[in-house]
Amino acid sequence: MEDTLLDLLHSEIINYTLQNGDEKDKKEEDLSGLEYIGFSTGYRIIERLTKEMPRFKDELDTMKFICTDFWLAVYKKQIDNLRTNHQGVYVLQDNAFRFLSRLSSGKQYLEAAPRYVAFTCGVIRGSLANLSIQCLVTAEVQSLPSCKFHIQVQRM
Amino acid sequence: MSRSTRFDTKKVNSELVTLTYGTLVAQMVKDLENPDDVSKQLDRIGYNMGIRLIEDYLSKTGSGRCLDLKDTADKIQTAFRMYLGVQPNVVNWSPAGDEFSFSLDSNPLTELVELPDDLKQLKYCNIICGAIRGALEMVQLDVQSWVVQDQLKGDPNTEIRVKFIRRLEDAMPAGED
């Protein structure tokens, strides 16, 4: 299937989840529905991708897989930079994130950026959850089309 | 970034769309309760995608005007191959030549899907109908489209019907010729 299809579907999912939300609360959009759709998708796709693969060595190895092969398969490029404090915090930086690359760069649409990254936050969280890493994922967009995903692993 | 992935990218892409769509439908079923409302909403989402998809199609294929509805059917057939990776057959032309069907032997959209018994009336593939309607509207063709047969419901093929309604006239802004 064509890449275009996912791009269009992604926009429509954003439309759908936002139109159901409460309109009055304009300042802080409720992106949890969007994130959850991403979570379910990530949870399922990772299972299909990794079923023939050997077990990952450790958490860092899993993260590296997310940054390289997984990102390449889903977002058509690798993560440009991975940082970690070795205590469960990982920062993944993508300098030209797929779902932001169609927005014109500059400040005008910066405000709309969170809705274009929420699905992916969910995808990361879902994928890691299925690889038995419980975490919180947030995204930070300072200038389009670059994006940083912060992963905070929850230790039980 | 030239390193190639260890995955079959085409397959991953296709599964990604299938799974994402599936998740969306599941969410809608939860949100809307009535399967008929879900079907309607899916058609609308397809329509929204169609009105944008047509531009992508035209730019990639460089295809010109259609001579007749038969030509249109062939071009939609190409679009199926481009976007869904399956080639449907164009069948069941009406005697008047204003109605036809696409028959799909396999449908990537429903590949990993099972419909539970209480959702048998859900038109899972309505997004395709919507996309056809939306795309054709952008090239001045008003059509209706609906699902006749669905493999999800045990039919041997998935059949999508398209009916020509009328040609839309270009609405020019006042003062322009």
From TrEMBL, chain A:
<keyword id="KW-0524">Neurogenesis</keyword>
<keyword id="KW-0333">Golgi apparatus</keyword>
<dbReference type="GO" id="GO:0007399">
    <property type="term" value="P:nervous system development"/>
</dbReference>
<protein>
    <recommendedName>
        <fullName>Trafficking protein particle complex subunit 6B</fullName>
    </recommendedName>
</protein>
<dbReference type="InterPro" id="IPR024096">
    <property type="entry name" value="NO_sig/Golgi_transp_ligand-bd"/>
</dbReference>
<dbReference type="GO" id="GO:0005801">
    <property type="term" value="C:cis-Golgi network"/>
</dbReference>
<dbReference type="GO" id="GO:0005802">
    <property type="term" value="C:trans-Golgi network"/>
</dbReference>
<dbReference type="InterPro" id="IPR037992">
    <property type="entry name" value="TRAPPC6/Trs33"/>
</dbReference>
<comment type="similarity">
    <text>Belongs to the TRAPP small subunits family. BET3 subfamily.</text>
</comment>
<keyword id="KW-0256">Endoplasmic reticulum</keyword>
<dbReference type="GO" id="GO:0006888">
    <property type="term" value="P:endoplasmic reticulum to Golgi vesicle-mediated transport"/>
</dbReference>
<dbReference type="InterPro" id="IPR007194">
    <property type="entry name" value="TRAPP_component"/>
</dbReference>
<comment type="function">
    <text>Component of a transport protein particle (TRAPP) complex that may function in specific stages of inter-organelle traffic. Specifically involved in the early development of neural circuitry, likely by controlling the frequency and amplitude of intracellular calcium transients implicated in the regulation of neuron differentiation and survival.</text>
</comment>
<dbReference type="GO" id="GO:0005783">
    <property type="term" value="C:endoplasmic reticulum"/>
</dbReference>
<dbReference type="Pfam" id="PF04051">
    <property type="entry name" value="TRAPP"/>
</dbReference>
<dbReference type="GO" id="GO:0030008">
    <property type="term" value="C:TRAPP complex"/>
</dbReference>
TrEMBL record, chain B:
<dbReference type="GO" id="GO:0048193">
    <property type="term" value="P:Golgi vesicle transport"/>
</dbReference>
<dbReference type="GO" id="GO:0030008">
    <property type="term" value="C:TRAPP complex"/>
</dbReference>
<protein>
    <recommendedName>
        <fullName>Trafficking protein particle complex subunit</fullName>
    </recommendedName>
</protein>
<dbReference type="Pfam" id="PF04051">
    <property type="entry name" value="TRAPP"/>
</dbReference>
<dbReference type="GO" id="GO:0005783">
    <property type="term" value="C:endoplasmic reticulum"/>
</dbReference>
<comment type="similarity">
    <text>Belongs to the TRAPP small subunits family. BET3 subfamily.</text>
</comment>
<dbReference type="InterPro" id="IPR016721">
    <property type="entry name" value="Bet3"/>
</dbReference>
<dbReference type="GO" id="GO:0005794">
    <property type="term" value="C:Golgi apparatus"/>
</dbReference>
<keyword id="KW-0256">Endoplasmic reticulum</keyword>
<dbReference type="InterPro" id="IPR024096">
    <property type="entry name" value="NO_sig/Golgi_transp_ligand-bd"/>
</dbReference>
<keyword id="KW-0931">ER-Golgi transport</keyword>
<keyword id="KW-0813">Transport</keyword>
<keyword id="KW-0333">Golgi apparatus</keyword>
<dbReference type="InterPro" id="IPR007194">
    <property type="entry name" value="TRAPP_component"/>
</dbReference>
